[in-house]
What does this fold into?
Amino acid sequence: MNYVDEVLAKVKEKNAAEPEFLQAVEEVLESIRPVVDANEALYRREAILERMTEPDRQLKFRVSWVDDQGQVQVNTGYRVQFNNAIGPYKGGLRLHPSVYLGIIKFLGFEQIFKNSLTGLPIGGGKGGSDFDPKGKSDREVMAFCQSFMTELFKYIGADVDVPAGDIGTGAREIGYLYGQYKRITGLYEGVLTGKGLTYGGSLARTEATGYGLLYLTQELMKCHGQDMKGKICCVSGSGNVAIYAIQKAQQLGAKVVTCSDSTGWIYDPEGIDVALLKEVKEVKRARLTEYAAARESAVYHEGRGVWVTKCDIALPCATQNELLIDDAKALVANGVTAVCEGANMPTTLDATKYLQENGVLFVPGKASNAGGVATSALEMSQNSERLSWTFEEVDAKLNQIMVNIYHNIDEAAKRYGKEGDYVAGANIAGFEKVAEAMIAQGVN
Ligand code: NDP
It folds into this structure.
């Protein structure tokens, strides 16, 4: 049996109850076939694919905390340290009721290749909990974060594993987590990224994922003879990634006409008002109905449906598996030019295939949303230097990193006769570097 098929079969057997992880592994292994086939004897002997699909370690722990009524609550915490061949483990912490080991493994696995693509020395990891920060008081969130870190601190460190934000983990949560780490260890070190500017955070980190997504999209369009100016964009989500994607798209002259949250979505033909969206989501932590109530041009729809809107560029920025085959068909029917993922794995495998087969420029999240983790790595550099760079310096580095990623994945795809297949390009470019580092470091 072919080596890729053999490993895929083993991974499916071992992880049958983790569909998101299997989806991520299948996407990567299917698209790196040409590299694996060209080096089969070496990779087989080194068991590269088996080692890459098995985390270095996975930690699961109880998180007990007391709510505002004095009731003890219990959640489950996770940290999956997937691969540190090219640098310390790096990846965010997701706080969402849907979190279980399979979600953290899929995200940690994706992170290996994404981090490799940034060109910076960071390995892959991810963590989180089934805790839901929604509707909790600041004190309850603090109690949870302190309890979570009281266990996690044993396994992380500035040169070991550096967590960051993700869904449900924003500036407030990072602050509480950092405070507890410092209190327990006595260390003032860059153990987390996404920190506040008063205690070691980097300028432009908050904006980085959304801005980076647009820098890459802009380069993609430019290399296909097109401009962002005047383009109609559909964005899903209304969190950190979505907000700054919308802001940068507008700065580049595009018009963004949609955004969404987990209960509904907005169509705003006048273009999304970012200041209002930030007020509703970042300050009031409210539903999008409040956005619609405050803006005459906006129409609110219950449920999902962003992708039925006619657009040139689609930017899914909410969560995994939110762009399905019927959405892909609607986008193609409406003449979409490009789909660039802001979220992690928002497009299902069949939807991705449909978009690619119908000539849509499709860039997977591990390339197009890598600006967040890249800027986190820049935050680590600033912490090590005990210096802070200006917004312009960080933003310029981010822009350059995203342009480089685009050319890197484009070149890798071409090298293996898959021109224009950026899924293959991203997976191949990310994989080659990690595989080489693993082989150089011997069996471990
Ligand atoms: P946020 O928590 O800030 O925002 C998430 C957004 O997605 C919210 O609008 C949320 O709606 C919506 N959402 C979450 N879960 C669901 C769901 N199950 N169904 C529908 N909508 C949902 O997270 P981020 O913006 O940070 O992250 C968004 C995506 O980007 C994730 O896939 C994340 O892994 C990825 N990412 C994030 C990076 C970062 O730097 N933050 C870096 C790279 C990738 P609601 O408001 O109702 O909860």
